[in-house]
Amino acid sequence: MGLFAQKTLSVSEINHYLKELMESDEILRDIWITGEISTLARPGSGHIYFTLKDENSSLRCVIWKMNALRLQIMLQTGMAVEAHGAIGVYERDGQTQLYVDAIRLAGEGALYQEFLRLRTKLEAEGLFAQERKRPLPPRPATIGIVTSPTGAALQDILNTLRKHYPIAKVVISPTSVQGSEAPAEIIAALDLLNRITKPDLIIVARGGGSLEDLWAFNDENVVRAIAASASPIVTGIGHETDFTLADFAADLRAPTPTGAAVLSTPDISDLLNELSSMTEHLVGNLEDKLANSRRDVHEWEQRLLRVTPIWKVQDDRQAVDNLVNRMNRQVVHLLALQRSGLSNCTQHLAALDPQAILQRGFALVSKIDGTRVNSIQQVVTDDQVAITVSDGAFHATVRKL
Amino acid sequence: MPKKVETVIEELSYEKAFAELERVVSSLENDQLTLDESMKLFARGQSLVEHCSKLLDTAELKVQTLTKIGIGEKEE
Asked: Best exposed site among A3, A8, A147, A220 by fewest CB in 10 Å?
């Protein structure tokens, strides 16, 4: 020991130092520790104190009230658990202890590791792929149920279907849903439904339980059978917070058995609405069609009227009228022409009137027998002739030729 | 619309009856039908509606249980 030895620490100082050392260690801050619960105490403060022990050693544990309220399981002395939290030092007593924030039953950790390993493997195979999910039939006629015949899950499903969708036919394929024989039974029950009943969909259901209770639904062969099912599958396994690999492989995962019945069927009131709207379509469509037909008939009637012989007759009558008019006009025209020709003639005639010539001082000579004298050859001396002038006639004797 | 033998409506499940009703309406809406064909189809549609309504009104869940030997009938 040298002259300048290290500083001497007080108890408080060393405990404080240890506390800080432990609390800064990454492994100790986030650790799972397995052991058996002993000396369990639940004072009125709401915090829980107990000791975790194994054959050789023990560790003080505390669960603060805030975390205690969130515990999923009821702690009991003698229970084998896995506790998660951070290691620290209670300075007053120099006591190393575990500040617990979560507890699960022993073995669940290992199961969970197995769950993760299988999930990764099957996921890589594409067993859970969204593209594999089939749509559920909108109105399933036959619904298969794979579950325990004695479980509450079955009654929940049947009660829901009675209320919600009573037109279905339900075929139960009974199986045990936990224990070592469960996986093989579940696979056989599924196979029986798919081979014999061929339902429109299958509900695979089980009530709530621990991870271990639900383990049959994480069995690799069960998960593969669900993925390979001919009928689409809806799972309702455990509670809302429980996820099994069967859920991932199913076409639809419902949070509970009741949820599976609800999600896989339409409500009867929706069916009634759907039916009445379909009826309206049906009737409305026929009414439209009849109205169209009526309109068509009317339209064709109009077209028919347009091409009817009556119109033709009337057209002909009009043509005749036209002809008559044209004829009349023609006649009038002709008459007018005639009339004007006649008047010309009359004038001509007037110009030729001998009377008019006489008035100009000419005289008309005729023999006594009326023969007109146009030439000197027609008379001899002493012939009696009649001479006509404009206002009368007189006789004369031819004297000198 | 292809000609096919019409099944007896009373024997149809709700699912089948409703599916046919949908086809009838869609055919009335989209196909070129004679008025006579339309009337016949409409009558078929009406019968389907009646059948569906009756099924809904009188529905009672039918429950069977499969056993490994055969099917155990159990009406509930």
From this structure: A3
In angstroms, the separation between the Cα of residue A101 and the nearest Cα of chain B is 46
**What ipTM did this prediction achieve?**
0.74
A268-276 long-range Cβ contacts below 8 angstroms, 24+ apart: A268/A164, A268/A165, A268/A166, A268/A167, A268/B56, A268/B59, A271/A139, A271/A167, A271/B14, A271/B18, A271/B56, A272/B56, A274/B18, A275/B18, A275/B21, A275/B49, A275/B52, A275/B53, A275/B56
Measured between beta carbons, the chain B residues lying within 8 angstroms of A186 are none
- Tell me which chain A residue has its CA closest to the CA of residue B18: A275
Q: How far apart are the first and last CA of chain A?
A: 215
pLDDT of residue A87: 95
Are the C-beta atoms of residues A194 and A229 closer than 8 Å to each other? yes
Longest Cα–Cα distance of chain B, Å, equals 55
Which residue is associated with the tokens 């309220």?
Answer: A69
For the cut 90, the answer to whether the pLDDT of residue A131 exceeds it is: yes
Evaluate whether B64 touches B73 at the Cβ level (below 8 Å).
yes
Question: A53 near A59, Cβ under 8 Å?
Answer: yes
CB A272: neighbour CB atoms within 10 A? 14
Residues A268, B29: C-beta atoms closer than 8 Å? no
pTM over cut 0.95: no
